């Protein structure tokens, strides 16, 4: 019976029963020409399918999948209750039908693997294209920024050249008034305002700059940038040289040299005199505890050549320079001051900041000037503290151009020092100190012929140090300095000084504890001074204050000493 109906059905749609399953299905769909019968009810369709292939009715879940295979099109459902064969392709192409909805209405699960996968791919493609778009935008922005920077640098370079030309014009126009009144003179020359204008584009207003001269200064402070773009730095520097003179001249007027300085940079000499010169550092040998070996070497290298210059000639010439190295707070500066005081030398205490100028070439000029000034004030001791920060290893990737030039100048000056000492009799001694001897430039290390290790204080030195620190302080009879010295092994001289200071304040702390300011004011000063420092105060202070030098530090210094030390 079933077979008979099936055959009838075949005949109805003109299907040949001998054909394959796929062919049969295709014929069924082809029958529904969109022009004639654009709408096929789902029930009708299923009826047809079941008639042709009754096994499919048990597998409705697979139906969409099969239809898709037969039709070669993944999307085939249309309408809420029906299927339009021709609409399948439209729907798919336009992509505006809700697959889930369509399938739900006929109570069939959507072909997840197909429809969603396609939707996912579409979404991915969309996201990718968005990402590419944003990357493109970023690239465009970067290119724009680079271009702007380049243009800015180019403009700075032009500024520098312009300013140079203007300054040269000024120099030829008004030689007399130039140094005192450069700003006006430049403005008279004209073009000054226009140069201030573009510079202000980089964030500095014309007022702040105060016209052309300031712009020269500002442009120069961009030295590196200009160098990067191949700017003519030297010319900017030359302009600057004039500018410095002009700006500093007024300051110089107030500073009267104590001695006659006839070098080429009186303005810088005046500045250095103000900053670093100490004609009497006021530290005696006895103020320095221990360090007898260091004292002996310094006597031989500095004190004796000063007293017996005729003996220290030829092969006996004084050592070019002396380096003191060791952990911080061990008395290097103190020792240098003591030598200068004992020998009646002028003491010049130089740190990195004293020799670092703001303008192009200023650091070298300052260095040159320092040695000229030292000769003018001779006998002089130039003490360069933390020389490693001024003269670290050259040629490193991080080395700055200014610092490289400064180092070269320093080396030249140290060489010159040696010659002038032997001929003019004006003794200038270079004493340097560092906590990082390993960072020193090799050429400088060679010139600092004596390299003295200033170690942590030993037991005897610690005892002496405590006595020096407490010489004017009332001590309780039970205070055992030896015990304090034992307890402070590994402490630097500076640490021990701090312990003594802390211990000596403890009596006062106890005395004022819990009192109001008025009550404290009423305590007699003499009463306060009489409070003796007890052993307990010391022990408390030692407990509170920890040593600042690590054993790794000591090892580092000892290693360097065994390699490069010279005593
Ligand atoms: N041998 C010492 N005799 C007397 N006081 C000392 C001694 N060593 C250190 N001090 C004390 O420590 C303080 C710091 O010493 P100084 O500045 O000379 O150390 P430094 O070695 O130059 O330190 P840095 O390396 O940090 O510059 C001194 O003012 C002094 O109070």
TrEMBL record:
Enzyme class: isomerase
Enzyme Commission number(s) of this protein: 5.6.1.1
Residue stretches in coiled coil: 122-153
Subcellular location: Cytoplasm, Cytoskeleton
UniProt entry keywords in alphabetical sequence: ATP-binding, Coiled coil, Cytoplasm, Cytoskeleton, Isomerase, Microtubule, Nucleotide-binding
Keyword Transferase: no
Pfam families linked to this entry: AAA, AAA_lid_3, Vps4_C
Superkingdom of source: Eukaryota
Record SMART domains: AAA
Catalytic reaction list: n ATP + n H2O + a microtubule = n ADP + n phosphate + (n+1) alpha/beta tubulin heterodimers
Record carries keyword Transmembrane: no
Record family assignment: Belongs to the AAA ATPase family. Katanin p60 subunit A1 subfamily.
Function: Severs microtubules in an ATP-dependent manner. Microtubule severing may promote rapid reorganization of cellular microtubule arrays.
Name by which UniProt lists this protein: Katanin p60 ATPase-containing subunit A1
């Amino acid at each position: 019976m079933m077979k008979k109906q099936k055959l009838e059905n075949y005949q109805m749609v003109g299907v040949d029963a001998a054909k394959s399953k796929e062919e049969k299905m295709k014929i069924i769909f082809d029958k529904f020409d969109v022009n004639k019968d654009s709408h096929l009810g789902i029930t009708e369709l299923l009826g047809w399918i079941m008639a042709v292939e009754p096994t499919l009715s048990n597998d409705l879940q697979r139906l969409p999948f099969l239809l898709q295979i037969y039709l070669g099109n993944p999307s085939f459902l249309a309408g809420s209750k029906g299927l339009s064969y021709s609409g399948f392709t439209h729907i798919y192409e336009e992509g505006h039908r809700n697959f889930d909805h369509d399938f739900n209405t006929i109570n069939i699960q959507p072909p997840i693997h197909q429809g969603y996968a396609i939707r996912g791919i579409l979404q991915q493609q969309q996201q990718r294209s968005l990402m590419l778009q944003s990357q493109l935008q970023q690239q465009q922005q970067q290119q724009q920024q680079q271009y702007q920077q380049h243009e800015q640098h180019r403009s700075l370079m032009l500024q520098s050249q312009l300013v140079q030309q203007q300054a040269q014009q000024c120099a030829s126009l008004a030689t007399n008034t130039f140094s005192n009144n450069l700003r006006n003179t430049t403005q008279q020359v004209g073009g000054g305002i226009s140069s201030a204008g573009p510079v202000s584009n980089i964030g500095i207003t014309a007022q702040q700059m105060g016209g052309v001269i300031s712009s020269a200064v500002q442009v120069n402070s961009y030295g590196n940038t200009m160098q990067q773009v191949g700017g003519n730095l030297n010319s900017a520097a030359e302009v600057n040289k004039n500018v410095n003179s002009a700006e500093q001249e007024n300051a110089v007027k107030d500073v009267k040299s104590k001695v006659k300085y006839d070098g080429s940079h009186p303005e810088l000499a005046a500045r250095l005199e103000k900053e670093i010169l100490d004609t009497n550092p006021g530290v005696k040998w006895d103020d320095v505890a221990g360090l007898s070996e260091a004292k002996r070497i310094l006597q031989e290298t500095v004190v004796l050549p000063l007293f017996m210059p005729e003996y220290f000639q030829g092969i006996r010439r004084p050592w070019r320079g002396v380096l003191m190295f060791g952990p911080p707070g061990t008395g290097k500066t103190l020792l240098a001051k003591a030598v200068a005081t004992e020998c009646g030398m002028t003491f010049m205490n130089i740190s990195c900041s004293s020799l670092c100028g703001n303008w192009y070439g200023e650091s070298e000029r300052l260095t040159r000037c320092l040695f000229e000034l030292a000769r003018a004030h001779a006998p002089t001791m130039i003490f360069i503290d933390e020389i490693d920060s001024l003269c670290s290893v050259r040629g490193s990737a991080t080395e700055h151009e200014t610092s490289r030039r400064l180092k070269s100048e320093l080396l030249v000056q140290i060489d010159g020092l040696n010659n002038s000492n032997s001929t003019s009799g004006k003794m200038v001694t270079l004493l340097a100190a560092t906590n990082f001897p390993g960072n020193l430039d090799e050429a400088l290390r060679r010139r600092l012929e004596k390299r003295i290790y200033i170690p942590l204080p030993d037991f005897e030195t610690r005892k002496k140090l405590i006595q020096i620190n407490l010489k004017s302080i009332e001590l309780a009879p039970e205070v055992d300095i030896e015990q304090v010295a034992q307890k402070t092994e590994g402490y630097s001289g500076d640490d021990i000084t701090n312990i003594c200071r802390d211990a000596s304040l403890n009596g006062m702390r106890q005395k004022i504890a819990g009192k109001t300011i008025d009550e404290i004011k009423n305590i007699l000063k003499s009463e306060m001074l009489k409070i003796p420092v007890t052993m307990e105060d010391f022990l408390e202070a030692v407990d509170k204050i920890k040593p600042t030098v690590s054993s790794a530090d000591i090892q580092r210094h000892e290693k360097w000493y065994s390699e490069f030390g010279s005593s």
